[in-house]
Amino acid sequence: MSQLPRPNTEELRAKYPDVFERPASARLALPAMIAAAFAIFIYGLVDLDFSPTKLIKGISELGWITMLMMPPNPGSSFPLYMQALGETLSIALLGTTLAAVLALPVSLLAARNVIPSNLIRFPVRRFLDSIRGVDTLIWALVWINVVGLGPFAGVLAIMVSDFGAFGKLFSEAIEAADRKQVEGIRASGGNALHEIRFGLLPQVLPVIAGQVLYFIESNTRSATIIGIVGAGGIGLQLAEQIRVLEWQKVSFLILMILIAVAAIDFISTKLRFAIIGQRAVV
Amino acid sequence: MATAVSILPAPQLAALEETYRKAVARKRLKAALATALFCAALLLAAFGAEVNLRTLFTYFGNFISYFDRILTLDSGARVWTDPAEWFWGWQKWLKLLGETILISYVGTLTGAVLAFALNFFAAQNTSPGPWLRFVVRRLLEFARTVPGIVFALIFVIAFGLGPMAGVLAIAIHSTGALGKLFAEIVENADMKPVEGIRSTGASWLSCMRFAVLPQVSAGYASYALLRFEINVREASVMGFVGAGGIGQELVVAIRKFYYSDVSAILVTIIVTVFIIDISTGWLRGRLFGKETRR
């Protein structure tokens, strides 16, 4: 049996100093970062009043609640819950569609290849960023002040907060579009509007449709929670039942939400495959 | 030089045009059907959500004037004319904002650690057994689908009012979201190093540690930072249900019509979210190079 030659460590060391003697700063960077992250974590635990006794007590309480949740049982309010679920789905669909319709023209203003001037693009972008910085629940509270309690406030809240997100995503899709087709339209004598309609939109619409479908899906989730502040849908029922400690109803409502979200998920994935093809699905 | 475009004889052309017309008509019909279906769904939704355009038109002025009101001080002046009066409670608000950021930090880190512990079981290529994989996947799905604020509502009852409920709610939700993303990274990892290490007789744990982890850790950190950004937003509303942070102040200000306070708190939240977004974006760029930046 032949033996491998012993490596000459000294020679290798001399040959590749970078590998054997990394500077101390490079070697210490990772442990230092981990230590810092851990230190902040501990500080956070202390500052946020974490205590083992509270934790254990809470977990045993949670176990008790879970026991009470079994089996899920809607009592006599099943029709009411189905109606609330329908309301939630309506809120998600309507809010997302309205947001997409409103965001499309604005996203053109925020796209570099449509509006080259920074003077317009910059304020539009910051405006969209500020809208996105505010959570859907906060928008729901604001709209409740304006149009009163009920699902309509929820639709408007989803619309406004998605408007910010769509504006950004659409403008990115438009910026990623191919320039050549727009040039082709211009070469054949089209005006600026024709360029957008026949050069840009056919490229970006499938991308946009995919994003809208994805948002309808994720908004089903958001729409379940805006009811907690009074903006309609199944969240209202859920929050109420949690407050009055009707745990069997709570677990039934959570189960309904899970099933609805899974169903929407399934449908929208199918539709997205149909619209943009297997390859482009992210 | 003038070149003539050759035109096909009429009967041939007619046949071609007929086929083209049919193809376009079929496509148009499909599009029209889809549009009609969609519009029907929208109408149904509008009915279900009690959309009332008259209410909107009547009250839309309120929406504009609401912003007018929140930008006006009690004295009647515009808020920016007297920043000291506008941000009168800045010490309290900054403290609560700090609490909000800490909630999302502790929650994200806990969630990331839990997701890290679970993701190797959830990924198709590294899971030790299909049963375990199924169970872990369903667990993550559950944690991801139930919204964070619903967990917060339940935890507030179990753990009492305060930031602890918020932290735990964010931690659970993040575990679900990150667990899925982490598992996807692992599924995209190259399996050859794993084979190499297994061939030396290493255990499953060593395979994960020395073959998979070096490939995926950058992606993990990047997603965790992204999640932190999202969680700062989420933590800002945890106070709505009594789970700590700035949300409590905001909901009180909105419900009790302390108009200028609403705008002041909103501005501080938006600025904080901006700062967090920019700094985590910078950090991701520093740590992982430009290409992983989104």
- Helix/strand order of chain B: HHHHHHHHHHH
Total of domains of chain B: 3
Encode the helix/strand succession of chain A as letters: HHHHHHHHHHHH
Give the class-level CATH name of the largest domain in chain A: Mainly Alpha
Q: What characteristic shape of chain A results from the CA principal axes?
A: flat
- Percent helix of chain A, as a range, is over 70%
What is the CA–CA distance across the termini of chain B?
51 Å
Portion of residues in beta strands of chain B equals: under 5%
Mean pLDDT of chain B: 83
- CATH architect. name of the largest domain in chain A: Orthogonal Bundle
Distance between the termini of chain A: 53 Å
The class by helix and strand makeup of chain B works out as mainly alpha
CATH superfamily of the largest domain in chain B: MetI-like
Q: How much helical structure, as a percent, in the residues of chain B?
A: over 70%
Radius of gyration of chain B: 28 Å
By CATH, the architecture of the largest domain in chain B is named: Orthogonal Bundle
Q: Which pair of protein chains has the largest interface, and what are the residue counts? A: A-B, 64 and 57 residues
What would the CATH topology of the largest domain in chain A be? MetI-like fold
Q: pLDDT below 50 for ≥5 consecutive residues: which ranges of chain A?
A: 278-282
Largest sheet of chain A: none
Could you characterize what this model shows?
- The complex is a heterodimer of chains A (282) and B (294).
- Chain A has 282 residues and is mostly helical.
- Chain A has 2 domains: 9-69; 78-280, Orthogonal Bundle (MetI-like fold).
- Chain A is 80% helix and 0% strand.
- Chain A has 12 helices and no strands.
- Chain A is flat, with a radius of gyration of 27 Å.
- Chain A starts with 8 loop residues before the first helix and ends with a helix.
- Chain B has 294 residues and is an all-alpha fold.
- Chain B has 3 domains: 18-51; 61-86, no CATH class; 88-292, MetI-like (MetI-like fold), CATH 1.10.3720.10.
- Helices cover 78% and strands 0% of the residues of chain B.
- Chain B has 11 helices and no strands.
- Chain B has helices at residues 10-48, 53-70, 83-86, 90-122, 130-145, 148-159, 163-188, 192-199, 204-238, 247-255, 259-288.
- The longest helix of chain B is centred in the first third of the chain and has 39 residues, at 10-48.
- Chains A and B meet through helix 3, helix 4, helix 5, helix 6 and helix 7 of A and helix 1, helix 2, helix 4, helix 6 and helix 7 of B.
